[in-house]
What does this fold into?
Amino acid sequence: MKIRLPIACLVLTMWLSPSRVLAQPQTLASGTLKGVVTDPAGAVVEGVLIRIVHWGLDDKRKTVESEIALHTDTNGQFKVELAPGIYDLFLSGPWSSPVAKQVKVEAGKETEFNPKLEIGRFIKLIP
It folds into this structure.
């Protein structure tokens, strides 16, 4: 009898393991923002700085609630998981005009933004 009790505990522990709990449906609390940055000729651009800002309201003043900075990879791609909300994106490369764009990220959805950088020094606002 003493041998069966540990086996029963092991079986019960395996049955109640976290993998069983994780297999159940979960709510989606984030969305994905992704894209590819290209130059005027359509070639991908590596190492572009992307600053993602989420604004909050504090006493009727806009304040930065959260901020993320990342760079495009060797394929000019970027991808980040974000909480649902509206974000301002600021892109800058060493030879390009900075780019600004506002995007909406929704829970459980992918938002795609594929900017084309231009040579210059002035900010380009993308509608």
About this structure: DSSP finds two helices and eight strands in the chain. The radius of gyration is 23 Å.
